[in-house]
Write a structure and sequence with these properties.
This protein is mostly helical and 210 residues long. Helix 4 packs antiparallel against helix 6.
């Protein structure tokens, strides 16, 4: 004889802990999505403003030199930090370190990465980007993709850090594994593309000036 189903709570009765969790999780996910969309719009607006200022405003040779120096420092700061974070993530994939070591480093490095990206946008507006050059446009697009990719991976990282520290990559769900690998691949591809194009453009400008 099957047990009788529990009677529904009368109107106005306090919710159980289980019911509160069920209602809280969708609300939390919805607020997180809204927050990510707003941050994505802010990043896109900053990226667009940097392009417009760099294309239409003549900052002069002095600001150009300052902007170039800041651009290089910002690149070293953000790209160097990303390499360390991604390297530790790769070590976790290989089973060399625990998962939370990579997550803690990523959380600690986040201000350096986003601070470096913000400096790249500000300084990029001062170095007169050539928007008629398709290669330069690819570099600028890579920067935007990097920011959107960094925002979109946040839910997966929160889900990852909620797991036990001893969790291995192969023990994750297929969808989460795929999401992490795609984000890592996009990050490395865009960073290296942007860096190499920047170095080539800088070298060509120096040769043309000579």
């Amino acid at each position: 004889m099957s047990p009788a189903a529990p009677a529904p709570a009368p109107p106005g009765a306090p919710q159980s802990i289980h019911e509160r969790r069920i209602t809280r999780v969708p609300a939390s996910r919805k607020s997180q999505r809204v927050r990510l969309v707003l941050l994505g719009a802010l990043c896109t607006a900053g990226w667009t403003a940097s392009l417009l200022v760099g294309h239409f405003v003549d900052c002069g040779p002095e600001l150009h030199r300052i902007g170039l120096a800041v651009h290089i420092l910002a690149l070293v700061l953000s790209f160097g930090t990303i390499l360390v974070v991604d390297w530790l993530g790769l070590l976790w994939l290989l089973g060399k370190v625990q998962m939370h070591e990579s997550g803690k480093l990523e959380a600690a490095a986040k201000p350096l990465i986003w601070g470096g990206l913000a400096l790249l946008l500000v300084s990029g507006a001062l170095i007169d980007p050539d928007l008629t050059n398709p290669v330069t446009v690819i570099k600028l697009a890579c920067v935007l993709v990097l920011m959107i990719n960094g925002l979109s991976i946040a839910p997966a990282m929160h889900q990852l850090l909620a797991l036990p520290a001893c969790t291995r990559f192969g023990e994750l769900g297929r969808r989460l594994r795929l999401r992490l690998m795609v984000a890592l691949s996009i990050s490395q591809a865009c960073w290296w593309t942007a860096v190499l194009i920047g170095l080539i453009n800088s070298t060509l400008r120096r040769w043309a000036g000579a």
